[in-house]
Specification:
By secondary structure, the protein is mainly alpha-helical. The protein is 63% helix and 0% strand. The two termini are 14 Å apart.
Length: 251
Amino acid sequence: MQRRVFLLGASAATVAASPLAAQSLLDQGRNLLNQGGVAVPGSSAGGTRGRGLSAGEIAQGLKDALEKGSTAAVSRLGRPDGFLGDTAVRIPLPEQLARVQSALRSIGQSGIADDLETRMNRAAEQAMTAAKDIFVRAVRAMTVSDATGILNGPADAATQYLRRTTGSELGAKLRPPIETALKNAGAVAAYDRMMGSYRNLPGVPNVSADLADWTRDKGLDGIFHYVAREEADIRANPAARTTELLRKVFG
């Protein structure tokens, strides 16, 4: 039986009928570590692929998959409409500015706030390049112990690992490019225009918001949303083998 091979992020594939082919990529990794003499609680031996490989080689196969998956998530968001055109991750106005938007809508001027929201999403898209190298470094620094924990962990173990090891650095490194992108995308000027119109309304309360912090934090939520999606694909799609080592390890 022929097998269809897809890149990470593709739909489930038809694979060769064998006990190991029916398992997810990460289930196979657990078994291969077990076969190699590395005890992984909860796994069961089976199949013959990967025999003779070291635990380090098996861990490297997982790292290859996660590096590709995490960079694919960032690349998806760092293109035009990566945020703006995706309802799952589109960045809304901060709650306090949503109230401004509502007040302006009452006088037919909500387009000013809508324009700001568009520009915030464009800024997030422009800033995503800075995240890719951070993920690559985190994945490459992963130890055999880290990989074993991911292989034997919950459904989002890899996403948890990446959030834990990259979250602080991503937050710090994304803030400057977000600020620059907000300015370049015209979001700062749009904010000033919106607030000018809002303050001309009678009896409205004073409001303010940190656009850079909000855009960065929502941008991070978007990144990890798609990192989790990529991890789910790795777990569900036994044909997601896109490097020589992955094919060597997982068949």
